[in-house]
């Protein structure tokens, strides 16, 4: 268990690391950020930072010696990074969670083996295998790279007017899975946390709306039945326990049907704090960022009570220039990430509106 004054190491210097560092400070904990060169807004609010590549063994060993525990803001940490660090200092969540969730085939297989519903999927490593998989799953289907995909990158929907070759070229001819298309009514997610003492808490299920494959808005409560809400939370608990997970994570679901006919299927697991949990900053008694810090520090988890009806919206690209009008709205919780350049599709901030 950490104590006030100890230091948490964070891999990655983006907005998620920034908000974790900001959450750690009121608890008396320091954060040391490790990230390669680039626009790293977390550096502005952390006690220390290291600029080095994720495979720089000497820098990683010095980083490990300066902190009490290591966590991360993104899941695509190289396996060698986790191995080097875990030889010297606890890494939470454990490297096994990274290994499973970095590869869509491994992740989908893990979910299916737990007995949870997941869209049918087939591994493909060539255009010939893709053509065979399309015969099995039909059209439309979704082709996804096995690794390094986010915000719609590395994905292609294969409809009747799209050839297998065109889809294969579109994802860069990388190892992939073909996934059955789910005619869902809505997308929802559960943000949850598991502590070192194996306690699990889950925030209320949130409903997510995407624009151009990027999360645009999250609202609570989600328009689902109480039975479906509980099933989503139960699935999150099952996943956390099977991974022996420590920290905050999110599980994204597709919801098909309505009312008594609602059916959940797991889309993916995010082994970190998550964009759909940003509403907890101002919308819950404990934010997901404080919750993650508590979990990896070995501290008791905080209350996940929701404080009202919630709407959280991302500020994408030049949307961040709305900051004067947003700050003028009483009660609005605005978070600007401090990135140097606003580019199309880049997450620059978010705001949360709470109706009590």
Short description:
The chain has three domains: 7-91, Rossmann fold, CATH 3.40.50.20; 120-180, ATP-grasp fold, A domain (Dna Ligase, domain 1), CATH 3.30.1490.20; 186-355, ATP-grasp fold, B domain (D-amino Acid Aminotransferase, Chain A, domain 1), CATH 3.30.470.20. It is built from eleven helices and 17 strands.
CATH class term of the largest domain: Alpha Beta
Work out the count of structural domains: 3
Question: Helix- and strand-based class?
Answer: alpha+beta
| CATH homologous superfamily label of the largest domain | ATP-grasp fold, B domain
Q: Judging from the principal axes of the Cα atoms, what is the shape?
A: globular
Series of H and E elements: EHEEHEHHHEHEEHEEEEEHEEHHEHEE
Q: List unreliable stretches of 5+ residues.
A: none
Structure notes:
The protein has 356 residues and is an alpha+beta fold. The chain folds into three domains: 7-91, 3-Layer(aba) Sandwich (Rossmann fold); 120-180, ATP-grasp fold, A domain (Dna Ligase, domain 1), CATH 3.30.1490.20; 186-355, ATP-grasp fold, B domain (D-amino Acid Aminotransferase, Chain A, domain 1). 28% of the residues lie in helices and 28% in strands. It has eleven helices and 17 strands. Strands 9, 10, 11, 12, 13, 14, 15, 16 and 17 form a nine-stranded antiparallel β-sheet that branches. Strand 11 (206-211) and strand 12 (214-220) form a beta hairpin. Helix 1 packs across helix 10. The longest helix has 18 residues, at 226-243.
């Amino acid at each position: 268990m950490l104590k006030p004054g100890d230091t948490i190491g964070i891999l990655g210097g983006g907005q998620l690391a920034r908000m974790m560092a900001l959450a750690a400070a009121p608890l008396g904990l320091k954060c040391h950020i490790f990230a390669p060169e680039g626009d790293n807004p977390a550096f502005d609010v952390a006690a220390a930072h290291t600029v080095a590549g994720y495979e720089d063994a000497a820098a990683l060993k010095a980083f490990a010696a300066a902190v009490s525990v290591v966590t991360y803001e993104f899941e695509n940490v190289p396996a060698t990074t986790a191995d080097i660090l875990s030889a010297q200092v606890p890494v939470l969540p454990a490297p096994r969670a990274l290994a499973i969730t970095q590869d869509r085939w491994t992740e989908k297989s893990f979910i299916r083996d737990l007995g949870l519903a997941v869209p049918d999927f087939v591994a493909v490593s060539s255009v010939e295998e893709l053509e065979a998989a399309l015969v099995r799953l039909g059209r439309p289907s979704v082709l996804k790279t096995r690794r390094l995909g986010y915000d719609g990158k590395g994905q292609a929907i294969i409809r009747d007017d799209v050839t297998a070759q065109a889809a294969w070229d579109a994802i860069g001819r990388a190892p992939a899975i073909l996934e059955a298309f789910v005619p869902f009514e809505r997308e929802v997610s559960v943000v949850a946390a598991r502590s070192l003492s194996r306690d699990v808490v889950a925030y209320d299920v949130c409903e997510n709306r995407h624009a151009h494959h990027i999360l645009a808005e999250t609202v609570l409560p989600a328009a689902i039945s109480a039975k479906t809400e509980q099933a989503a939370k139960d699935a999150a608990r099952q996943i956390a326990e099977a991974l022996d997970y420590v920290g905050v994570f999110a599980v994204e679901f597709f919801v098909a049907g309505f009312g008594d006919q609602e059916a959940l299927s797991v889309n993916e697991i995010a082994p970190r704090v998550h964009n759909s949990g940003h509403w907890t900053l101002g919308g819950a008694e404990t934010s997901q960022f404080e919750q993650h810090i508590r979990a990896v520090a070995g501290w008791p988890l905080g209350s996940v009570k929701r404080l009202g009806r919630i709407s959280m919206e991302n500020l994408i690209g030049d949307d961040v220039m709305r900051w004067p009008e947003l700050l003028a709205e009483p009660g609005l919780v605005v978070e600007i990430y401090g990135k140097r350049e606003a580019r199309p599709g880049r997450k620059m901030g978010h705001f949360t509106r709470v109706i009590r």
